[in-house]
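Lab meeting, item 3. Inverse folding demo.
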């Protein structure tokens, strides 16, 4: 369970990271459309788990490989943005949020069932 402090810091990081990513989208993501879905912060605020949704899904692996190689650059830009407000710039860990893809798979499966409505 996250504390109010963690939740508030996570929301602020989400906003600030979105701005960092918007400044140089092509450099970080190429042609993929990437959305930050959630940011979870450790209790000591030293680690931020950033969950990203990637479209098209086939670009996800390439996006995450690129993010791993530019992680320090992203953290540096984030630090310049939030450095005056916090003592520690959190380490960043990027994860793929596949909630939307799973929901669409389930939706396709359900719509593929030939269930007649009850009368």
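The presenter then showed the designed sequence:
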């Amino acid at each position: 369970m996250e504390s109010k402090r963690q939740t508030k810091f996570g929301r602020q990081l989400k906003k600030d990271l979105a701005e960092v990513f918007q400044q140089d989208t092509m450099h970080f993501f190429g042609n993929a459309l990437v959305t930050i879905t959630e940011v979870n912060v450790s209790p000591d605020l030293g680690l931020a788990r950033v969950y990203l949704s990637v479209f098209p899904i086939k670009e996800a692996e390439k996006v995450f490989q690129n993010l791993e190689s530019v992680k320090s650059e992203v953290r540096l830009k984030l630090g310049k943005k939030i450095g005056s407000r916090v003592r520690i710039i959190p380490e960043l860990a990027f994860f793929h949020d596949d909630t939307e893809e799973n929901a669409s798979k389930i939706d396709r499966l359900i719509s593929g069932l030939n269930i007649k409505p009850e009368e």
